[in-house]
């Protein structure tokens, strides 16, 4: 490829950032790890250049990969990532390579370390639950912790509610830390956060020159941790800026002040907030300097006509993104399609799902033969994801309930932990023509 061809260095396989680059005549050089080949679901688009790095979250691994492939000699226009775990790496890498990027190296830790993050937001005077850092759960010192009744234990730099638990008191905390150690949970440094009841909201948007340029607000059908603890998948709704003007008015100042406290000057963000059931006020939860998952990019594009991937690459280069929202009147919701414990062997086709009322977008992520454990591990688990629309929020919810039930009725999963007799009964119920009982040759099975 010619050296004068505009190019950008992208760490992580964000399809929205890659698409935005290609639409703007920029060749994305995509640093990816083993998961691209191991998982086999996402393919690099035509025009993108792949660079394999054993660990894209390691600056050493990325620099070595750039040197091996000769990409280190290219003049990239900017460096960008939407990979939560690579954020600090990319911020440091931008300094080494002298490339513009959205999140500066002195700011990036505020968006990865949840204890640092809450300390910064609390110092700005916002409502934030108390938190305590636990440096090493393998060597917990209970005497160093303040008393608490109910708290949330999570990796200090985690994502997706993975390895996150509600603990009630010190005794349960000690037991949970011991269980994590037995399970071989890779993280050692955790944060213990005050449990905040109430609705969980999300705020997604764009900041440039320290000013909030776009804001979308939504809510989860139930809080993320509640869903994971109950082995349920996530369901999300977008608020309407006119119909739900009060929600936007409540969220905007909190989001603005939180981002200012965290130091984000430009970039996209995904923020979690909780609405107190007693006062109705918003409590800061956490914030990531990236686009949100769960088809949030699709929902924002559908509802507002705003491409968050486009905004992300523009902010990375230091160019103000052109954001001209066009709000559609329809309500929109996204959801994960739930799986069941066992081996996945069948589900409805894309065409069948698309034919259902209100389905705007669908993707099926899990292949046949995938084995699902007994519990939901994080907020990203599901057979696939769907975006629904409707004339009203009530219609969207009705369609969401119907789709959830309809899909589950057609989901075929070999049950986990079943005995041979139970498996035979299951096979007979699902494929009666294939089931066979033990027979002798006493009587011919067919007439000759």
Produce a short descriptive summary.
The protein is an alpha+beta fold and 448 residues long. The protein has helices at residues 15-23, 35-39, 59-69, 87-97, 114-123, 170-183, 224-229, 245-262, 296-304, 308-317, 350-354, 393-410, 420-430, and strands at 7-11, 27-32, 49-52, 79-81, 131-134, 151-155, 165-167, 190-194, 199-208, 211-220, 235-238, 267-275, 282-288, 331-337, 342-346, 359-364, 371-372, 384-390, 412-415. Residues 118-317 form the ATP-grasp domain.
Can you offer a commentary on this structure?
31% of the residues lie in helices and 24% in strands. With 448 residues, it is an alpha+beta fold. The chain folds into four domains: 7-101, Rossmann fold (3-Layer(aba) Sandwich); 130-194, Dna Ligase, domain 1, CATH 3.30.1490; 198-329, 2-Layer Sandwich (D-amino Acid Aminotransferase, Chain A, domain 1); 331-448, Glycinamide Ribonucleotide Synthetase, Chain A, domain 4 (Alpha-Beta Complex), CATH 3.90.600. The strands form four sheets. The chain has an eight-stranded antiparallel sheet with strand order 13-12-9-10-11-14-18-16, with helices on both faces. Strands 3-2-1-4 form a four-stranded parallel sheet, with helices on both faces. Strands 5-8-6-7 form a four-stranded antiparallel sheet, sandwiched between helices. The N and C termini lie far apart (71 Å). The model has no long low-confidence stretch (mean pLDDT 93). This is ATP-grasp domain-containing protein. GO terms for molecular function: ATP binding; ligase activity; metal ion binding. It comes from Kitasatospora xanthocidica. Residues 118-317 form the ATP-grasp domain.
